[in-house]
Amino acid sequence: MRILPVLCALLLLVLQGVTGLSPVGASAQECERRGGFCSHHSCPPGIGRIGLCSEREFCCRMRWYP
């Protein structure tokens, strides 16, 4: 019974990568498809963050105000 929590944690780690919950699946192409661009460390002022390009790059896009 003591191994059950360890197995559950391992299963969650495996499923996290498979289902796309981690930023590993993020890419610059996906960001550009959404109308954004990749920026290192943070987005410029006045630009909103809409996702991730990689572990250290954010996907940024201009904020549109109606």
UniProtKB/TrEMBL annotation:
Give the Pfam families listed for this entry. Answer: Defensin_beta
What the entry lists under InterPro entries is as follows: Defensin_beta-like
Annotated GO biological processes are: cell chemotaxis; defense response to bacterium
Q: What is its main location?
A: secreted
Tell me the protein family, please.
Belongs to the beta-defensin family.
Q: What PANTHER family does this protein map onto?
A: BETA-DEFENSIN (PTHR20515), GALLINACIN-1-RELATED (PTHR20515:SF20)
User: What is the designated name of this protein?
Assistant: Beta-defensin-like domain-containing protein
Per the UniProt record, the lineage of the source organism begins with: Eukaryota, Metazoa, Chordata, Craniata, Vertebrata
